[in-house]
Amino acid sequence: MSSSVGEWTGQNIIVLGLARSGVAVAKLLSRLGARVTVNDRKPRSECPEAAELEQMGIPVICGGHPKDLIGDHIDLLVKNPGIPYHVPPVQQALSRNIPVVTEVEIAWRITNSPIAAITGSNGKTTTTTLVGEMLQAGGVKARIAGNIGKALTEVVEELADDEWLVAELSSFQLKGTERFRPRVGALLNVVSAHLDYHKEMSDYVRSKSKLFQNQTAQDIAVLNRDSDTCRQVAETVPGEIWWFSRRERVNRGVDVEEGWITLRLPGAENQRLMPADEVALPGAFNLDNALAAAAVAWGCGCPAKAIRETLSSFTGVEHRMEFVREVDGIRFYNNSKATNAEATMGALQAFDSPIVLVAGGLDRGVDFRELLPLLRSRVKGIVTYGQAGSVLMERAEEAEVPLRESAEDVAEAAQKAARLAEAGDVVLLSPACASWDMYTSFEERGRIFKQAVHSL
Fold first, then answer.
1. Which Gene3D superfamilies does the record cross-reference, listed alphabetically (predicted)?
2. Annotation-wise, does 122 bind a ligand?
């Protein structure tokens, strides 16, 4: 499946960007005999990982990108997924026809283990975690990596040849792949996101679609039948398509029929797995995640019994519709991972109780008009914060949300939301925005919200 590790001996490779994945891939390639140089634009004082790499004999250049970093002697540039393609070293490499990849490509070339890779605008972490739990419950050897836990290049050397690598992958990671070929690949959904990086929606979709580009008829492509974009992507997918759908019956894959999650393969007897309303995770979007995870795990050889047991017991991942606590009859939920409007729409639809919404964050020029129907029908109060707070407040006013306040940050927003709510209500942090205007990550934002709730 993958090339020999011997292909790296004597290769001159630039690793652009430290962080977790950069450190991991630099160490791995160096161990395999490559001549590796690491470059990060941050000053040395902000690169604590540099010393460890230098002790291994790997040169590290901090504080900018030297003009002579990329020359004709360079065989490959491995960049941190978040580094945009317009930065000078990447442009110089591309102009010299030097391949530019992410560590996902390196991991795939090295391992002989089968890979199940999951991408999508929303739901990746929940679905990936579900697949890992299902495989473990079913006695199928598996390891989760990628955007969850360790980088792929941190684990590939440890994997047995019959052990599945279950990988959550972003569009940033997939854009930098060439030969990457998962045995099972899943595209959950595609909504407008990360256009500050991709510039155009077409590039975003192409990057997601690279998940399937090297598959053959022996591989499985799991796609969302209820998504127009996924149906369009399917037209060019070379792998065997397994659909998942909660709206219509599919020929091959997983759907909901008469309230039952059903597994289907042509020429085989359909398997009624479990009633859809027994899935432990709340909300229609989590039912989508459940169906996708069932299809992926089934494609990896997981027994139906283990899939069913996991779906009925798995209650979620931190920062994703995470129940925090109940105070005076008010239930508090942390959905900090909702970094776009579509994710927040799914969260609002998950509750029947009146909602006090906490939303805001990085302003990417989104007008949030798609939230209007749910603001009108589901939200009794809103507390906004951050760069996008004023736009969200405008939408709340337009939707005539009865209770409206603004806050300086998430902690104050949690306190104000608690005062707006009453017994029987839900206070929901579902920001509809990235966190980077005020916080280093959605995880930090979610932890601060939870701390504020626990201090009530």
1. Mur ligase, C-terminal domain, Mur-like, catalytic domain, NAD(P)-binding Rossmann-like Domain
2. yes
- What is the pTM for the complete model shown? 0.81
CA 451 vs. chain centroid, Å, equals 24
- Sequence spans of domains, the chain: 5-100, 105-313, 322-454
**Domain 105-313: what homologous superfamily?**
Mur-like, catalytic domain (3.40.1190.10)
Q: Which residue has the tokens 């005076």?
A: 328
Q: Write out the chain in H/E/C secondary structure.
A: CCCCHHHHCCCEEEEECCHHHHHHHHHHHHHCCCEEEEEECCCHHHCCCHHHHHHCCCCEEECCCCCCCCCCCCCEEEECCCCCCCCHHHHHHHHCCCCEECHHHHHHHHCCCCEEEEECCCCHHHHHHHHHHHHHHCCCCEEEEECCCCCHHHHHHHCCCCCEEEEECCHHHHHCCCCCCCCEEEECCCCCCCHHHHCCHHHHHHHHHCCCCCCCCCCEEEEECCCHHHHHHHCCCCCEEEEEECCCCCCCEEEEECCEEEEECCCCCCEEEEEHHHCCCCCHHHHHHHHHHHHHHHHCCCCHHHHHHHHHHCCCECCECEEEEEECCEEEEECCCCCCHHHHHHHHCCCCCCEEEEEECCCCCCCCHHHHHHHHHHEEEEEEECCCHHHHHHHHHHCCCCEEEECCCHHHHHHHHHHHCCCCCEEEECCCCCCCCCCCCHHHHHHHHHHHHHCC
CATH number of 322-454: 3.90.190.20
pLDDT in tens, 332-370: 999 999 999 989 998 999 898 999 999 999 999 999 999
120 labeled part of a ligand binding site: yes
For range 161-181, the mean pLDDT: 96
* 9 annotated to bind ligand: no
CA distance 88 to 293: 40
Q: Torsions phi, psi of 18, nearest 5?
A: -80, -110
User: Which residues contact residue 161 at a Cβ distance below 8 angstroms, ignoring those fewer than 6 apart?
Assistant: 112, 113
- Percent of the chain at pLDDT exceeding 70: 97
The CATH number of 5-100, from 3.40.50.720, 3.40.640.10, 3.40.50.1820, 3.30.450.20, is 3.40.50.720
Q: Would you mind telling me the total number of residues written for the chain in this entry? A: 456
Annotated ligand binding at 289? The verdict is no
pLDDT (tens digit, 9 = 90+) per residue, 273-323? 999 999 998 888 899 999 999 999 999 999 999 999 999 999 888 888 888
**Does the annotation list 124 as a binding residue?**
yes
